[in-house]
Amino acid sequence: MMENIEELSPLRITPTVRALSSALRGKREDVHGSSRVNGDRVFPEPEKLWFKESSAKNLRNRDFLSPTTMLNTLYADGQVPPAVMSRVLSLRGSGVLPVAGGEVMGEGLRVRVDRAVTFRAVLAGGAAEYLKALSQRQGCVVLNCPALHPKPNTPSPDTMSLGQLRTVLLADHMGALLRRQGYAVSFCPTLPEDSDIISFLRALGIDWPTAPGNWTNEEREEKIQDSLEKSQYREREMERGRRASGGGGRKAEEGENEGALRINLKQVFQEEGLPGYDPSLGTCTVNRDGVSQLAQLDLSTADCTVAMVTALHVTSCQDEFRQQQIAMLWRASGAKHTQRHLVCGPVKTPGSHLTAAQYLQLRRGQMKEASEMKYGDQVEGQTWEDIIKVMTSATVRFELLSTVHTSPVTLDVKREGGVSTKGPRGGVFVMYNCARLHTLFDSYERGVEKGLYPEIPEDSQLDFSALKEEGEWLLLFNYLIPFSELLEQSGQALDSEGGGARVNIKTEQICKFLVSLSKDFSSYYNRVHVLGEPLPHLFNQMFCRLYLLRALRELYHSALDTLNLPPIRQL
Question: Where is the DALR anticodon binding domain (predicted)?
Answer without folding.
Answer: 430-571
